[in-house]
């Protein structure tokens, strides 16, 4: 009888530890998300399932999930970091006066024949500020013509960022890792 109670107690402890670890991992380290919409096409597709890394600080060109003003979570690409001056001219991104390549847009740019993928603008045109404020980032969707991003909702406070997404795990045919 004592042996059975001991075995039940061991199973119960193992179950409590497993549930505790699952909670810590899910709420503090990683979380699954489902892409909802077309704003990150062609990089991400509606229905893609990803893992969001909740620790660390986002870097330029990382794909991040954040709490948007509309009480929804958005997924976009970090274009500008605190202190950056952002400008688009002739479909080319300039950060602090230096031109940057955006290879993730190359395929999309080839398919667009009726003007630029990204219209000309400066950060000041949309935010009224010359540089991205401290503690905030400027984000854009890869589907520049169909994305509600910092051009519409302003810069995003770092405190609103859930984490960055580096892995598509479903559907299997689209599985890939990002920088």
Automatic annotation (TrEMBL):
Main location as per UniProt: membrane
Source organism, top-level taxon: Bacteria
Keyword Secreted: no
GO terms for cellular component: plasma membrane
Catalytic residues (positions): 39, 76
One protein family per Pfam: Peptidase_S26
Keywords, ordered alphabetically: Hydrolase, Membrane, Protease, Transmembrane, Transmembrane helix
GO molecular function: serine-type endopeptidase activity; signal peptidase activity
Catalysed reaction, written as an equation: Cleavage of hydrophobic, N-terminal signal or leader sequences from secreted and periplasmic proteins
Membrane topology, as annotated: Single-pass type II membrane protein
Similarity annotation: Belongs to the peptidase S26 family.
Protein name: Signal peptidase I
Organism classification: Bacteria, Bacillati, Bacillota, Bacilli, Bacillales
């Amino acid at each position: 009888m004592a042996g059975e109670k001991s075995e039940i107690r061991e199973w119960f402890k193992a179950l409590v530890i497993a549930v505790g670890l699952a909670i810590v991992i899910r709420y503090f380290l990683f979380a699954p998300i489902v892409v909802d919409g077309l704003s990150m096409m062609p990089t991400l597709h509606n229905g893609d399932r990803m893992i969001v890394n909740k620790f660390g600080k986002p870097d330029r060109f990382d794909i991040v999930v954040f709490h948007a003003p509309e009480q929804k979570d958005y997924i976009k690409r970090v274009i500008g970091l605190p202190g950056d001056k952002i400008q688009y001219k002739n479909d080319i991104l300039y950060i602090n006066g230096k031109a940057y390549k955006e290879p993730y847009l190359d395929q999309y740019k080839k398919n667009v024949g009726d003007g630029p993928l990204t219209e000309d603008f400066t950060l000041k045109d949309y935010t009224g500020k010359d540089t991205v404020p401290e503690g905030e980032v400027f984000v854009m969707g890869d589907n520049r013509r169909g994305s509600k991003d910092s051009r519409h909702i302003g810069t995003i406070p770092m405190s609103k960022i859930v984490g960055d997404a580096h892995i598509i795990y479903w559907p299997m045919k689209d599985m890939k890792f990002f920088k």
